[in-house]
Amino acid sequence: MNTNQAATDPALVLDILAQLFASGSSLANGLAAVGDYLPGCHSLTRVANQLLLGMGWEEAWEDAREDRQLDQLANELHFVHTSAVPSAHMLTTAATALRANRKRLAEQLAQELAIRLVLPTGICMLPSFILLGIVPMVMALLPG
Predict the structure, then answer these.
(1) Long-range pairs for 57-65 at CB < 8 Å and ≥24 separation?
(2) Are 15 and 92 in contact (CB under 8 A)?
(3) Please, what sign has the CA dihedral across residues 38, 43, 44, 48?
């Protein structure tokens, strides 16, 4: 993926496609519209054109699968293509599931970060705790 392009959010694309399906658009026409107007999705226009020409699903998505986000989108849309039922509700549900998975992953990474920060924080705080808490108390308890 080109570094100048914006990152593609598969959940956003699924939501947009759901609205296009609700208005009567087909999968290929929806992909073309998203590819034309959404930054980072320009390769979807090519996928749509190849699907309209009758190319198979895997062959049409071959170049777009280099981008991890578009690969995830292709996996989510595969059932819509094979069933030939562009269900807006199904795409909205898939977008919600993607967002929930993303949130769960972010929470998991935050928990891992908290665990990783305990040791360095403890190593930094322990000397000051000893010098400011333990040493004065020991000094006060010593006779003399």
Answers:
(1) 57/81, 57/82
(2) yes
(3) positive
The pLDDT tens digits of the residues spanning 57-104 come to 889 888 888 888 888 888 888 888 888 666 888 889 889 999 999 999
Burial 92-113 (b: 16+ CB within 10 A, else e): bebbeebbeeeeeeeeeeeeee
67 backbone dihedrals φ, ψ, rounded to 5°: -85, 125
Question: Which domains, ranges and CATH numbers included, belong to the chain?
Answer: 10-105 (1.20.81)
The closest of 61, 33, 58, 34 to 47, measured between CA atoms, is 61
Q: What is the pTM of this model?
A: 0.69
Residue indicated by tokens 């929470």: 107
